[in-house]
Amino acid sequence: MERPAITLTCDCGERRAVQYGHRWTCEQCGRTWNTNQIPPEDFDAVVRIQRRYRIVPMLLMMLVLATVVGFIIAGRILAVVLFPLILTMWFMFVRPIQRKRLRNRVAALPEWKLTPE
Fold first, then answer.
1. Using CA atoms, how far apart are residues 84 and 89, in angstroms rounded to an integer?
2. Coil, helix or strand for 23?
3. How far apart (Å, rounded) are the C-alpha atoms in residues 50 and 6?
4. What is the pLDDT of residue 95?
C-alpha cells in the first residue's frame, strides 16, 4: 500500500504533494523543503490510520462475500437477498460511523510546521 503524500505549501503560495523522506524545491522562489523534519512516529501514525481505513472494510466485505457464497453452495436461496441487505446496512450505518471515526482521528493528529532549508 502506498504511503500518503504530504502537501507542502511554500511561503510564496506554491503547493506540492511530496512523499515522506523527499525534498522539494519550489519552482517559484527556490526554497527547499525537507519532509524528514516530520518525526517518523508521527508519520507512522498517519500510515496506520490510512491502512486501517482501507484494509478493515475490505476484510469485512470479503468475509460477507465468503459467507454469501457459502450459503449459495449450501443451497440457501436466502443468500441472494442477504448480500444486498448487508451492503445496504453497510453503506447506511457502518460506513458513516467509520468515516466519522476517521475524521476524528485525522483531526487529532498534529499539524507539522516545516521550515525551508
1. 9
2. strand
3. 13
4. 92
Whether 42 contacts 34, CB under 8 Å:
no
The helix (H) or strand (E) run that includes residue 98 is helix 95-108
Q: Which grid coordinates are listed for 98? A: 467509520
Cell 478493515, residue located: 56
Q: For residue 68, which of 44, 87, 41, 91 has the smallest C-alpha distance?
A: 87
Give how far Cα 68 sits from Cα of 54, 56, 73, 81, Å. Answer: 22, 18, 9, 10
* DSSP calls for 44-93: HHHHHHHHHHHHHHHHHHHHHHHHHHHHHHTT-THHHHHHHHHHHHIIII
Return the pLDDT at 92: 95
Nearest to 32 by CA among 23, 40, 41: 23
Instruction: Compute the Cα dihedral for 98, 113, 18, 36 and give only its sign.
Output: negative
Q: Which residue numbers in the chain have pLDDT < 50?
A: none
